[in-house]
Specification:
alpha+beta; Arc Repressor Mutant, subunit A; Chorismate lyase; 9 helices; elongated; transcription regulation; UTRA
Length: 261
């Protein structure tokens, strides 16, 4: 916690005006302080109790202002640690025309990448995994789930499923799943992705360090070998405030039926 933060709340009761609800006035004061650089990314705010005492307002008012700022991405709350100014995040653009791994994609941008493992193991397949991967009920599925982190910012949760015949030892996956698949001659060459909007649940928002219910991107990818065989079924959640997916569109050849007015 920095000295400027305490000063902001000490002077709030002198600058508060009638009309707008107090929580909105407090919210604006904090936003202004962040925008002016009085408190910067990573700086801790005083506790709700301390803010209420300094600003001479109720803790309920403080909590409502802070929750609004967390939902807006201005602040982040870390369980057991407190409330902090959110890091300034440069949005990441990913092309929809290129099939790359997260590790490769971030490396091209000069970003340091690491993963937090959530799951690596062999399981009985779900009905959906059986259908997509073409598995029988007596086969096993390899599941690899990771929190993907770039420049110390959690960006995505990836949950991949593959046939255990392709990936008999999920623990062998290190930095890149695709690098592991390439070693065995099973790297996918094309994929079909479906992207939809999603409001993040409690667990996913905790991992991505955003407020529950904020907008995210749900991405379902089915990847194929050159033979046309499905090799990978991945369901991912990406932060909506950090990712832009970009597609290039071209006019079809003149004369196509679909092009005629």
């Amino acid at each position: 916690m920095i000295e400027d933060a305490g000063q902001i709340f000490s002077t709030f009761k002198q600058t508060a005006q009638g009309g707008a609800p107090l929580y909105l006035q407090l919210k604006k004061s904090i936003e202004d302080a962040v925008n002016r650089g009085l408190i910067g990314p990573g700086d801790a705010l005083p506790s709700e109790r301390d803010i209420a005492l300094k600003a001479d307002i109720s803790r309920v008012t403080v909590r409502k202002a802070v929750q609004d700022l967390v939902k807006g991405g201005v602040l982040v709350q870390r369980h057991g640690s407190g409330t902090f100014v959110a890091p300034r995040m440069e949005r990441v653009e990913q092309s929809l025309s290129r099939l790359t791994s997260f590790t490769e994609d971030m490396a091209r941008r000069g970003m340091s990448v690491r993963s937090q493992w959530l799951d690596r193991g062999l399981y009985a397949p779900s009905p959906e995994e059986m259908m997509v991967l073409g598995l029988s009920s007596n086969e096993l599925v390899a599941r690899v789930a990771r929190l993907r982190i770039a420049n110390d910012t959690p960006l995505a949760i990836e949950r991949a499923a593959l046939s255990a015949r392709v990936l008999p030892d999920p623990a062998a996956v290190a930095a890149s799943l695709y690098a592991t698949l390439q070693t065995g001659g099973n790297r996918p060459v094309r994929a079909v992705q479906r992207i939809s909007a999603a409001n993040l649940g409690e667990e996913d928002s905790r991992l991505l360090e955003v407020a529950p219910g904020v907008a995210g991107l749900h991405i379902e990818r089915i990847s194929y070998l050159a033979s046309g065989k499905v090799i990978e079924f991945t369901r991912s959640i990406y932060r909506g405030d950090a990712y832009d997916f970009v597609a290039e569109l071209r006019l079809s050849e003149p004369g196509n039926i679909g092009d005629r007015p």
